[in-house]
Amino acid sequence: MQPDNLINSLGRDLKQRFGHKVHKLTIDADFTCPNRDGSLGLGGCTFCNNASFSSKTNTQLSIRDQLETSKPGMRAKKYLAYFQAYTNTYAEVAVLKQMYEEALEVTDIVGLCVGTRPDCVPDSALQLLAEYQQQGAEVWLELGLQSAFDSTLERINRGHGFAAYQDAVRRAHQYGLKVCTHLIIGLPGELPEQSLITLERVLEEGCEGLKLHPLHIVRGSQMARQWKQGEIQALEMDDYIRTAGEMIRRTPWEVVLHRVTATARRPTLLAPDWCDNRWPSYMGIQDYLQQHGGQASALGRPSLIQTA
Ligand code: SF4
């Protein structure tokens, strides 16, 4: 099977619908997060150091300038503005409106991807996003869930449980919005079986997109200390490939995979070593799917994963 037919990727999905390449351009709009500013907590999620995934640390640049300076070399005709860093619905709706519209007004921007927490999506923000969608913009609400297990969410100090995710998805769907759910593989205390159960619960709730991510241990996070003290271990690449591969095989074809692996930049990344390069794990997943079947091929079949 051709690699393009193994996964219903976001690139593939957008190309089919728009007729040409559409790329995401990342924005850091200088938001904060209720799990960091004291509203919910101060320490944040134990894995979190936004500097590891935010490609734009210069938030002195306007949203427009961040988008314009990211375009060259992208080889796409159209773009989605991806509000990535921190919690991008965490402001008064008037402020959100100003930021989102600054992005939408940039030439060749055809939509928004808005990353946020499930407990931070008031109806006013959903309604605003739904209005852009009704006007023809491509809109994705990206919800960080990471795990469907409340025990794990508590352990990593998320500050919300699975019920908050269920509520956010239900309301987003009432507004007709597409939801992309972010999941982390390799969280402390979780075996591959838990990742499969998380996937099952997420699919039961219904979502239009998924983003899979290996656990990164990054400088400045609480997990960095736990890892240095030997309290948690870094994920092996082979384990990630098998788990992500099985999750993809259990994902219905119509669910769009926004990402199946992720990198972090050194020196922020401490472990695992293989996470500083996207390609080995990406190619490993492609090989796994070639051997065992692509997206949706294992629906209704027993797990290939051996759990300890
Ligand atoms: S991962 Fe997201 S929700 Fe958690 S502390 Fe970091 S910005 Fe906040």
From TrEMBL:
GO terms for molecular function: 4 iron, 4 sulfur cluster binding; catalytic activity; metal ion binding. Signal peptide: none annotated. Transmembrane segments: none annotated. Residues 17-252 form the Radical SAM core domain. Its cofactor is [4Fe-4S] cluster. InterPro entries: ELP3, Elp3/MiaA/NifB-like_rSAM, Radical_SAM_C, rSAM, rSAM_horseshoe, rSAM_sf, YhcC-like. It comes from Motiliproteus coralliicola. This is TIGR01212 family radical SAM protein. PANTHER family: HISTONE ACETYLTRANSFERASE-RELATED, PROTEIN YHCC. Keywords: 4Fe-4S, Iron, Iron-sulfur, Metal-binding, S-adenosyl-L-methionine. It holds the Pfam family Radical_SAM. The keyword rRNA processing does not apply.
